[in-house]
Design a protein that fits this description.
The protein folds into 2 domains: 338 residues, Roll (2,3-Dihydroxybiphenyl 1,2-Dioxygenase, domain 1), CATH 3.10.180; 91 residues, no CATH class. It is 47% helix and 16% strand. The protein is built from 19 helices and 14 strands. It is globular, with a radius of gyration of 23 Å. The two termini are 43 Å apart. This is 2-oxoadipate dioxygenase/decarboxylase.
């Protein structure tokens, strides 16, 4: 049997190979990421692997896809379910973006610590929202929904194999090979001519809507390697003549602990596509929808930590509005240095970040009882704290990446009230529970604290 994690690792590797053939600049991105990671490892040694082994970081990828209907999303969930991946988190990019990005999203990923260590492949998956009247009037919504209902993204054989793999937690070798081949094919860029008039109709609303509903298939929108120094990668990619977006999204570069997620990308490239004119003539055209993204992952924050992060973003926005001539990255760094703890110990003390805790083998043996609090246990050498890697995404950053790769703003009629979506609605649409990322991190942390309490024979779980 080929296990689910092996299927996941093989799928991620094959998808990366396929995307590199389709978008050669992505291969450059992977090569530069590897070079940067090797340099950081040489310079920093073991500290470079504080948030994951170099083997994990080098193999790590996340992909992004876009689908049009709840039924398509359910089918995506079956394919990723075969790989041991679950929907985690709800992201409303309609509200996070200044331009027209009419999608809500989740991320399919492993949730078990061992599974993440084996291969942490994730796929950020966006669902179009035709029912939102701010983007689509009644006529266009009707036409769009009819178009989406008439296409098939995933062949029945792939879905049947996916269901077997999920139920049996793997597949025999021959079936695994067939599943992988069909799964990768499902995300290749189609050579079928694009209906030019229909695509342009949707593009006037949103380039994202056109990418989802203007074609008869889906495809990988971008793939993302992980890098240990994203600022250095940005410099090296630019030096190679690759046009990068204007900024690195997420927290700033600073001297304190890296938290959450930093992301950037090279700009979407013009790709040749066959276009069918209204008279049936097929012409050669070009679309700019796919790009290469790169990420640097930091420490997962608690709910309180995330609330502080969001508050700091608001402070930065206010200062940027008051001082439009100032460099935003400088403003952000100053806000961070003023309000965010500068050490992991302070993050722990203020309950802002998530860690796992392990009893230290050479802990004090002086006959004294260990302290009751986790901060004292760490500071006095009884317990070691290991940061939990942030495995998820930031809606504002995701929207910023999307926006930076759009050629136009699209249109959004704010005279209409938007349709409300949330994690509960998305769970119903998928037919599977959309898991709360904060709860997953808390469970991981609390499990380790319970183990510490047992090992040290504490009266209660250290707080």
């Amino acid at each position: 049997m080929i296990s689910q994690w092996q299927l996941r690792a093989a799928f991620a590797a094959r998808l990366s190979d396929m995307y590199g053939r389709e978008v050669p600049a992505y291969t450059t991105l992977v090569d530069v990421s590897r070079e940067v990671n090797e340099d950081v490892l040489r310079t920093q040694g073991a500290d470079a692997e504080r948030l994951g082994s170099i083997g994990r970081v080098t193999a790590e990828r996340h992909g992004a896809i876009r689908v049009g209907t709840p039924q398509e999303l359910q089918q995506v969930a079956r394919v990723f379910g075969a790989l041991g991946m679950h929907p985690v988190g709800f992201y409303d990019l309609r509200e996070a973006a200044a331009s027209a990005v009419p999608v809500v999203s989740t991320a399919f990923r492993p949730i078990d610590g061992e599974e993440l260590a084996r291969n942490p492949f994730r796929v950020f998956t966006s669902l179009l929202t035709p029912a939102d009247p701010r983007f689509f009037d009644a006529d266009l919504r009707s036409r769009l929904e009819a178009f989406l209902a008439g296409r098939e993204l995933f062949p029945p054989e792939l879905l049947a194999l996916a269901d077997r793999a999920e139920a049996e937690r793997g597949l025999p070798e021959e079936d695994a090979e067939r599943f992988l081949r069909l799964a990768v094919q499902a995300f290749e860029l189609s050579t079928e001519p694009v209906d030019k008039a229909w695509y342009e109709t949707l593009e006037r609303i949103s380039a994202v809507a056109a990418d989802i509903g203007g074609v008869r298939s889906t495809h990988i929108n971008h793939l993302t390697p992980r890098v240990l120094d994203i600022d250095e990668l940005y410099r090296r990619m630019t030096a190679r003549g690759i046009e990068m977006i204007d900024t690195i999204q997420g927290p700033p570069a600073w001297k304190g602990p890296d938290v959450l997620l930093r992301q950037t990308s090279f700009r979407a490239l013009a790709e040749s596509r066959a276009m069918r004119s209204p008279d049936g003539t097929v012409l050669s055209g070009a679309l700019r929808v796919r790009f290469g993204e790169v990420e640097a992952r930091g420490i997962a924050l608690t709910r309180e930590g995330r609330a502080l992060y969001d508050h700091l973003l608001t402070l930065v926005d206010q200062q940027a509005a008051a001082r439009p001539e100032a460099d935003r990255s400088d403003l952000t760094r100053a806000v961070w240095e003023q309000h965010l703890p500068a050490t992991e110990q302070e993050l722990i003390a203020r309950g802002l970040a998530c860690f796992t805790y392990q009893v230290v083998p050479d802990r004090p043996r002086d006959g004294n009882r260990p302290p009751a609090g986790i901060v004292d246990l760490v500071e006095q050498g009884w317990v070691r704290a290991e940061p939990i890697v942030y495995e998820d995404f930031l809606p504002r950053s995701a929207a910023g990446i999307f926006q930076s790769n759009l050629s136009g703003e699209g249109s959004r009629n704010n005279d209409h009230e938007g349709i409300a979506y949330d994690a509960e609605w998305l769970s119903g649409a998928i037919g599977r529970e959309v898991l709360d990322p904060f709860a997953l991190y808390e469970q991981q942390q609390n499990h380790s604290l319970a183990q510490v309490a047992r090992a040290l024979e504490l009266d209660g779980t250290p707080g």
